[in-house]
Predict the 3D structure of the following.
Amino acid sequence: MGQAQSIVGFTSSCSASSSASGMNMFAVQPCLSSGTTHAHAAYVTVVPSRSDQVSGREAGGEGGAVLTTIPSTLEGSPATTSDKTTAPSSSSSSSSSSSSSSDQQTGAGGAAGAGAGGFPFGASSKETDYMELPQPVRYEELQKECLMSLRPETFEGMRFDFTKPLNQSFSLSHALQMGHAEMPTQNPNQIVKVPVSSYEFGANLIGNKGMMIGRMLTDGRMSGRVKYDVNDLLSFKIQAQLAEEKAYSQTMFDVDVKGLDWNGQVKVGNNQFVGVNYFQSVTNNLALGGEAFYLGSQRKSGVGFALRHQGEPGIATCQIATTGLLSCTYHHKVSEKVYLASELMWNWNAREATAAFGYDYILRQCRLRGRVDSQGVITAYLEERLNVGVNFVLSAELDHWRKDYRFGFGMTVGME
């Protein structure tokens, strides 16, 4: 599963089992696992997405697979009370009753007016205190709730993941996958698949102040990530990927800074890459921000802007970039077990638009996610909990237009 996406950024997400974990409106980088180019997550994800689930759950939210729904519940509806100290006479009783009913009508009307006059995502009548605004999500995690439903980690063939914790901080992971990989062709409607298999060994070290994650694959690729939190407001990250092909080796250094009601990030990478982003809370529910990057090796640059409105029933986001790409998403919480998501992407330069609808249904023993898009692609991903730390996985993706059908099953052991 991928991480929340970013319009502007340096992309290097190369999970062998995930075809798309996000959107990048500017940079398109080669994917090591398939040899093709994809538009993926906004920042370098050198660790495959399956492994990020392990590290994310152990690190408490660092990995892209962790869903953190942060509803903004603001209480404060007007209410009226009536104190009765003595037994009132008939006249005083009738007058107090009429006064109480009048107050109740006034309170109900005020609450209805506040709801009708505010945002459709759950406005509040409470006035905004601009000196006590909440900390917004990171710019890269702008659409993290929607991506859980709209980007399920589908795969083809068989997959087995095993994680062995040695202590509270250190664990080893093993991943085996056998299936097919699509090869690029000149005709986009022609599907050519070749059988492939891979084994991945990983080590995870999670501490209170940081984390270290490393991966090694049978084809010689190595990847690693180091994160260190200096304090609650400042942290550093280094992500790297090494491969036999020089073009596939990449490095990225990040500096994350947080304020009381804002956060920012500076990125520096190889190929003369520099990027910045900033996100600021404007009200209790609304946050605005922007990002920019420059890629010196290709003489490319871009600027993007984004907004996020987070209310009680749902979360709405919008991103726009100088390349002519527009992305709008909405995530709605139906209940504690049912979540719905929708997405609209418009490419002004190519004159193309796509829409998608996703769902996330959480039961006591399983979790079902899926999506349907305007191109006729239907996706479903099921995780069934067989026992503590043992999950059975089913994956399916049907593309009737291209006549491409992908099915997979797997087992995950050692992950809670």
